[in-house]
Structures are given as structure tokens and as C-alpha cells.
């Protein structure tokens, strides 16, 4: 990768700020915070997004809160937490939504995970279906429309405070999911406009799979012309090269950085932007949950998890963290066996070069890539 691209996307130590944001998850508000909640079986739209039916401090003395819905009272609770917090602490609720079922998900199910990982995922498609920067399947559209209908139900029945800001991954399946979920809702009159900001670092964990590569900026702009594409977003994907991929440690640092970016873009006013929608991917949401100190909670396609976040800004400089991206080998033809693991045919040994044409100048990541946490 070019040095200029690394600086533009991640930042280097020379550009460090003297502040650091420490994140923690505030538990006791959502079922997903609790170890007894089974992520596999949890259905968010049957559980009020997981919001626990409880009272909050000070409610017994307030006549105003009587008759309010659980979501209205929770919003007042977030306001209370911010009002009583020190100047360097703020609380926000992030609704992390995983994209709906994509054609890459369907292909992985069809071929089986071992064969998918070691051969099919390195292709653009199979001649019938395309999964490079995959679009939503009809099932995925249905999942996003389910989220749409649930948001409308909560607006109508509980007067939920709708998101004050929207962020999304640049990959097509997330752009579509956010659009199907929020576009056309009958928002309350005082609601923020649904106009997401597209952020590079909200993308899925970067592997050699073509579904992890993004389309060009011009394509994204034409798909959602009224949305905001963040400053510095490049025309071509400068992170995916079909050869190297992030380690989980590298993705975690990227997750920390994008959380920092979103919090800083939301501003320091504790009375604004309290509810935030983030449309991303299973791996990336899992990585952000880890950074936030949340328990591991895997999301099914189309699912949503809200998290009450405490962000504490500390006046200290944090050392730059460096990780080397890893190279993955894969087959050049469908594997000989793939029931439990991938075994390439003897006539087609594993290679570490792309099976598809890389349309932009391929970045070469050989030395450790440094990410500035500040």
C-alpha cells in the first residue's frame, strides 16, 4: 500500500492528537448485555430491541415520566447520564445493524464454508451469481424490510427516539440494508434527516475474499447520490488486494479508529446525537463490540443490537500500534474435499496470488501497517 494511502486512511504517529477515547459498555439496560441471553436464538424484533423493562434512578419522583413508554423513559435516562457525567464523559446509544443476507452468504451456504473459503470466495461469482461486493438477496431485502417495519412499529407505539445520525459501510449490501431499513419511514416531525455518512473503515474485515472488496466511489455515489461520502474516500479500493488480509488484532485497531472518528464527528455536545445507527458487517460489528468491552454477541443477517456506550476522553498520548497483514493460500480449482477442511486437488496446488483481476493499482502490504489510536 502506498504511504499516502496509509496516512489518509489510518494516520501515522506524526499526526497524533494528545487525547484518547476510552470506551466501555454500560450494562443493565439491554438483554444482549447479559450472559444468559443466547445470541443464536435471540430475535431482536420480538424483544423490543432487547431493552429491559425496568425503572431508572429518579423516576419515582418524576410525574413527567409517568405514562411514557419504555423507550421514551430510556431516552430520558441517557439524558440524565450525560447531565450527571464529568465534562470529559459522554453517553450514546449505537444501534449496530448487520446487513441482510447477501449473495456471498448464499454462496457460502451452497458450497460449504471450507470450499467457499479456499476457492469460491476468491472468484467474482460462478457465472450465475455475482458476489464481489455482494448485493442483497431477496431474503436479505426481506430482512431489511422487517427492520423497517419494526422501527415503524416502535415509532407508532412507543414514540422511540429515532437515530440522530446514520453511518454505513461502503459495501453494497450495507448501503442497500440501510436504505431499505430507514428510507420511507414515517418519522416524527422533529427527527433527524435520514442521510447516512459512508465510512471506509466500517467495512467488513478485509480478507482475500472478493466480497470484502468495495466498488468504486463513482459507483457508490451513483447508487446513493444524496448520501454523504466521507472526506478522503478514494475512487478505487486501496485496502483490498486479494493477497493479504487483516489479522483480528489489526481489525480491532481499525475498529477503535472508526469509533473515534464517529464520536468526534458527532460532536461534544452531550444533548445532541444520543442515538446513532451504524450499518456494518458481522465481523466488523463483533470487532467493535470487543473494543467497547461488550460481551461477544454474534448477529444473524439483518439483526440489530443496541449498545449504551460510555466514552471517556483522556488527555494522554497513546503509542502507535503496528500489525503485519497475513497472506492466505487458496486453491486454483474447486477443492478435492471440503467436508471438514479444504484440500486442493493434487494437480492444482495452493497459491497466494489473486484468481481475479484487481482493477485498481494493487496495494502491497509487506511491512507492518501502523494505526494511530489517537
Please tell me about this protein's structure.
The chain has helices at 3-9, 70-84, 103-111, 113-118, 138-158, 172-182, 217-223, 248-266, 282-291; strands spanning 20-25, 89-98, 165-168, 197-198, 228-229, 244-245, 275-280, 304-314, 321-323, 326-327, 369-371. It is α/β, with parallel strands linked by helices and 374 residues long. The longest helix has 21 residues, at 138-158. The protein has one domain (20-371): Rossmann fold (3-Layer(aba) Sandwich). Strand 3 (165-168), helix 6 (172-182) and strand 4 form a beta-alpha-beta unit. The protein contains 9 helices and 11 strands.
Short structural summary:
This protein is α/β, with parallel strands linked by helices. It has helices spanning about 5-10, 70-85, 105-110, 115-120, 140-160, 170-180, 215-225, 250-265, 280-290, and strands at about 20-25, 90-100, 165-170, 195-200, 230, 245, 275-280, 305-315, 320-325, 325, 370. The model is unreliable at about 1-15 and about 360-370 (pLDDT under 50).
Amino acid at each position: 500500500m502506498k504511504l499516502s494511502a496509509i496516512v489518509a486512511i489510518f494516520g501515522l504517529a506524526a499526526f497524533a492528537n494528545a487525547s484518547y477515547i476510552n470506551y466501555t459498555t454500560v450494562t443493565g439496560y439491554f438483554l444482549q448485555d447479559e450472559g444468559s441471553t443466547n445470541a443464536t436464538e435471540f430475535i431482536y424484533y420480538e424483544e423490543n430491541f432487547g431493552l429491559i423493562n425496568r425503572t431508572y434512578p429518579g423516576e419515582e419522583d418524576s410525574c413527567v415520566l409517568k405514562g411514557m413508554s419504555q423507550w421514551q423513559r430510556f431516552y430520558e435516562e441517557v439524558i440524565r447520564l450525560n447531565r450527571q457525567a464529568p465534562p470529559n464523559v459522554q453517553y450514546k446509544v449505537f444501534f449496530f445493524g448487520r446487513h441482510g443476507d447477501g449473495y456471498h452468504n448464499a454462496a457460502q451456504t451452497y458450497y460449504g464454508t471450507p470450499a467457499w473459503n479456499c476457492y469460491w470466495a476468491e472468484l467474482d461469482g460462478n457465472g450465475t451469481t455475482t458476489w464481489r461486493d455482494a448485493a442483497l438477496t431477496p431474503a436479505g431485502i426481506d430482512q431489511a424490510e422487517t427492520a423497517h417495519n419494526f422501527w415503524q412499529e416502535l415509532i407508532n407505539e412507543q414514540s422511540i427516539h429515532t437515530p440522530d445520525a446514520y453511518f454505513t459501510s461502503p459495501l453494497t449490501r450495507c448501503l442497500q440494508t440501510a436504505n431499505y431499513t430507514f428510507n420511507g419511514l414515517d418519522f416524527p416531525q422533529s427527527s433527524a434527516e435520514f442521510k447516512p455518512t459512508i465510512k471506509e473503515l466500517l467495512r467488513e474485515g478485509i480478507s482475500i475474499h472478493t466480497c470484502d472488496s468495495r466498488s468504486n466511489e463513482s459507483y457508490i455515489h451513483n447508487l446513493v447520490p444524496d448520501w454523504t461520502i466521507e472526506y478522503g474516500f478514494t475512487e478505487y479500493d486501496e485496502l483490498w488486494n486479494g493477497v493479504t488480509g487483516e489479522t483480528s488484532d489489526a481489525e480491532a485497531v481499525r475498529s477503535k479508529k472508526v469509533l473515534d472518528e464517529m464520536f468526534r464527528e458527532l460532536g461534544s455536545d452531550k444533548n445532541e446525537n444520543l442515538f446513532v445507527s451504524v450499518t456494518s458487517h458481522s465481523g466488523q460489528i463483533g470487532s467493535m463490540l470487543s473494543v467497547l468491552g461488550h460481551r461477544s454477541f454474534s448477529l444473524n443477517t439483518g439483526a440489530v443490537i443496541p449498545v449504551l456506550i460510555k466514552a471517556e476522553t483522556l488527555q494522554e498520548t497513546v503509542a502507535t500500534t503496528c500489525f503485519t497483514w497475513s497472506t492466505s493460500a487458496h486453491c486454483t480449482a474447486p477443492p478435492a474435499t471440503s467436508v471438514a477442511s479444504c484440500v486442493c486437488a493434487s494437480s492444482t496446488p495452493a497459491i497466494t496470488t489473486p484468481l481475479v483481476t484487481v482493477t485498481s493499482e494493487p496495494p502491497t502490504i509487506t511491512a507492518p501497517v501502523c494505526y494511530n489510536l489517537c
